[in-house]
Amino acid sequence: MKRSAIINVVGLTRSLIGAHTPAIKGFLEKHSCQVIKPAFPAVTCTAQSTYLTGKQPNEHGIVGNAWYDREYDELRFWKQSNRLVQQPKLWEDIREEVPEFTCAKLFWWYNMYSSADYSITPRPMYPADGRKVFDIYTQPMGLRESIKQDLGEFPFPYFWGPMAGIESSAWIAKSAQWVETKYQPTLNLIYLPHLDYNLQRLGPNHPDIAKDLKEIDRVVGELLDFFTAHDIEVTLLSEYGITEVDQPIHLNRVFRKNGWITIKDELGLEQLDFGASKVFALADHQVAHIYVNDKSILSQVRQQIEQTDGVDQVLDAEAKTKYGIDHSRAGDLIAIAKPHAWFTYYYWEDDALAPDFARCVDIHRKAGYDPVELFIDPKLSLPKLKVAKFLLKKKLGFRALMDVIPLDASLVRGSHGRIPENENDWPVLIGPQVSEGNQPINATKVYSKLKASILS
User: Fold this and answer.
1) For the residues 84-109, what does the mean pLDDT come to?
2) Residue 417 main-chain phi, psi, to 5 deg
3) Backbone dihedral region for residue 97 (phi beyond 0: left; psi -120 to 50: alpha; all else: beta)
4) pLDDT above 70 as % of the chain
5) How far apart are CA 252 and CA 344, in angstroms?
6) For residue 42, what are the domain limits?
7) Cis preceding-peptide flag for 140 (omega within 30 of 0)
8) CATH of the domain at 95
């Protein structure tokens, strides 16, 4: 069997391939390219699960990057167990036909306790003294120390947060080459997130995006050369396209004005009490899951959302079925933003009362995805010095709070989640797959395309 590599270049669209991406453009010219109608919602965890199972969220269960656990009355945000994906994965199905098939899964999500033969995923350690120690999780377990010895520590601050940049994608690309050299997997799944950062910070039309395109093209080009030299067939793939936005929507503040949100005072700061609230919104880019604990106000909630500026539509039970997201993890209602808008998780009305984690990179405790974590508060004096002091304290083993994130959602200029109106903003599949002409393919069809290419 031939060996394959699938490189997931997050945020890549046809509109971004050009003069600034000579390696990707050259690869495109040699192969077929199909535009993909994105999974819904068009977010990381849903898109990847759809590609790897060929199913919609109502079957694989990944309704977004997060959902509300109604039994625990807690959010499940950016969880990592592969068992959360409720359908067989691509490599598992291929193994049924080819038992000797092996798979490396590098930084794709749901990468802990996976049935993949080799996996690497970001996973901090949390000692009892309250520190957060940057690290990775690997399978086999011993791979963790050997790859760090050869490549150095994974540059975690560059993977997400105000320092996010090319360093993390470059390390992941090196790890793919390292795994190939050590283990020669039949399939190598590689996740390169670099374009995700400034496309959200600056928006896709900002002139500085040219630099990001050149940086990721260099990394992808090196991988293409490496895999070609090892006679490995490559497919380029992306999850979604990022479009310009200029309007944040604060649904939880709307619910609060209606008296539907319950706020708990914690050490003088406000904490949203999910279980005690009649309704709340779990924000996820341009989509928000609305969990209604008090079903008697369901119609009122829907009416209020529909009247909120920036909201495009609200999916009820029937519409969720049409969108393939009628799963028990999904919200009772799902709000979709207009093309230029996106949803925040904000619920406080006075920034002085915002919870302490609001000003930190804290992807698990917030009531939604927070792209403002990509910024350093412009109001801070000497912000780089503050970050340097924080990193030094962490290195020395002290507890520290990196509260440098602003609370100004208007800073965000790019988002995703809804299905973009322009197909040029849809993700792409580039490689040796049989083309179906110029017609886009549904995200669920990517699975069969990849499988057919691998087995051909």
Assistant:
1) 97
2) 130, -50
3) alpha
4) 98
5) 8
6) 3-243+421-455
7) yes
8) 3.40.720.10
